[in-house]
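User: Fold this one for me? It's Central glycolytic genes regulator.
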Amino acid sequence: MEKIIQLQRKIAPELTQIIEARYNLLRHIQHAQPVGRRAVAIMLDMGERVVRAQVDWLKAAGLVEFSQVGMSVTVEGQAMLADLAEYIRLLHNLVGLEAELAERLNLKKVIIIPGDSEADSAVRRELGRAAAGVLSQHLGDNMVVAVSGGSTMAKVAEAINFSVPSTAIVPARGGLGEVVEYQANTIAAVMAGRLGGRYRLLHIPDGVSEETLEAILAGDANLRAVADVIKQANILVHGIGEAVEMAQRRGMPPATIAAIERRGAVGEALGQYCALPGEIVYVTSSIGLRLDDLAGIGTVIAVAGGSAKAKAILAVAGTGGQDVLVTDEAAAKAIQLLINTNYI
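Assistant: Here's what I get for Central glycolytic genes regulator.
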């Protein structure tokens, strides 16, 4: 396959461009289906006439079908998408980049989705789908899965299309400062529903003092039980955020945010703020998992994309304990550039 791609680049470079454009169109139709041509044209920022011509070709090839409610990808189109995804990965040399980053970041595996999740909602959904696929590979009977909050994690929960009813899902840590849809509690409930499993919730705010946390735990047997289950997690799936953005979203005082910046924090995960190359410089008090707990968890899956998160991913990965990173092409290439220019 790689040799064929090299030949295509030399002899007919326009062919690879057409294949990639049609793959991108097909992928967007799949994610939004049923969908109209005008909506697809807006999503892709393309002229409606151009979209119509490409869609007509896809229909003639049996890859999409039309109905009164819009276009949908056929069964044959879905199979073609899977084959094309591997072609695009090879075209962009993502397979080699995955191996390189896995070695440089000391990870067992890196999965790179083509594109930029900051600019393309379809790529964000693909991140979620890929992370859900990794979870399915590691999930066995009677396991406990801990999940963090965030918009990317919401996509992971939405993408689960398999059932493991014996699974227990728990939030990785307390924290009620997020938008409800992105809170770890909400994501745990959605994920459990998709898996047909059960869930436990942790209703406790972020950033309260250690003394207050101890008092709350002492007076609430249910919270203590949930905290114990979290510590027994077999799998952790978590997002990675930019330090300042996460501090602002959690409503931290400006003085605290300034202090975090002065300490060089660029990334955040599980309420801990990290500087390059992998130093934890600030910790918010909460109940649940911390980065130094990861060594005791069987499989740790980090999910984050977008070039703006490159430093954040590097900083969090540098603290250790991560097993699998699911990211996008934009972030992966930005990470590669940082490493190759000796930024860390």
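One thing worth pointing out: The CA atoms of residues 131 and 156 lie 6 Å apart.
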